[in-house]
Write a structure and sequence with these properties.
By secondary structure, the chain is of the alpha/beta class. It is 34% helix and 20% strand. The protein contains 11 helices and 10 strands. It has an 8-stranded mixed β-sheet, sandwiched between helices. Strands 4-5 form a two-stranded antiparallel ribbon.
């Protein structure tokens, strides 16, 4: 099923993967997460570089502004003109999606809808402020439970999130351990704003909604790791030549299991009450 898109094109730039899909009225750009999450977590730096809107993570910047990725961006810009544009990505792909959106805004005036999943922090205060001025209601950051990746790089290293957080939380767990009154109320109407282009999965009027939704949507971020916690996390992953099998990485990294794309898919299925197979896909990497 093509979900309204007629054409697609897969791209690979070094170790970055994604695809673009489009029709006469819509265009979608998707960035995949890292194929090697162990190496990515272990080697993630906090260095920043200059962006037109402020300072941003050097590695994310270099990924989206490389010559090869610039060619991909230009192809998509041409496709996306006068269309409804959506950009999305998971993990590292979410950070790339944010910077891709800034490129489109700066270079062609496009203001894409932007949905990221398990996205790390991208830039500093100046970048976050400018992003919210230029694209104030465009970015929705979906966070699964206590996913650790949206908590790095540390804010102490000069980072701050932009956009609107939508944190998915299991209703039963929230009630078991207790939450604030504000977090206890199921945000059914707020959830409908997460992915308007896939609106039937978040339609508060859908007959699939149960009287007790199994997932809450909380509009807050968890506190980022401190520099000490971040350094300890990377040290715990061992030397560069030590490989942790992907299947047991969650045993080595706190809350890494919450970061897996399969966990995001499961929570979104619960949130929507959908059971039509749309999310039943096999996904490589993160």
């Amino acid at each position: 099923e093509n979900h309204g898109y007629e054409f697609y094109q897969v791209f690979q730039v070094n170790d970055l993967f994604g695809f673009m899909s489009w029709s006469d009225s819509r265009a979608l750009l998707c960035f995949r997460g890292s194929a090697n999450p162990y190496n990515w977590l272990r080697n993630l730096k906090v260095d920043q570089t200059q962006h037109e809107w402020g300072l941003v993570h050097r590695g994310f910047h270099d990924g989206i502004y490389s010559e090869e990725m610039t060619n991909v961006i230009k192809v998509f810009q041409d496709i996306a003109q006068e269309k409804q544009v959506t950009i999305t990505g998971h993990s590292l792909g979410g950070a790339l999606a944010v910077l891709a959106a800034t490129r489109f805004k700066i270079e062609s005036g496009l203001s894409p809808s932007l949905y990221t999943f398990g996205q790390p922090l991208v830039g500093n205060d100046q970048f976050a402020d400018r992003f919210m001025q230029e694209l104030p209601n465009n970015l929705f950051r979906v966070i699964n439970k206590k996913d650790i990746v949206p908590r790095i790089p540390p804010t102490a290293a000069g980072y701050r999130h932009c956009g609107h957080p939508k944190r998915l939380s299991d209703t039963r767990i929230s009630k078991m351990f207790g939450t604030s009154q504000a977090e206890e109320v199921p945000a059914v109407e707020g959830a409908a704003n997460i992915l308007p282009n896939f609106g039937h999965y978040f339609d508060s009027q859908s007959s699939n909604w149960r009287s007790e939704p199994p997932v809450h949507v909380k509009e807050n971020d968890l506190q980022s790791l401190s520099m000490e916690e971040f350094e300890a996390l990377q040290e715990s992953l061992g030397p560069r030549d030590y490989i942790v099998p992907y299947g047991v990485l969650g045993d080595h990294v706190p809350y890494f299991n919450d970061h897996k794309i399969s966990e995001y898919i499961e929570m979104l299925q619960k949130l929507s009450g959908a059971d039509d197979g749309f999310y039943e896909v096999k996904v490589g990497g993160l």
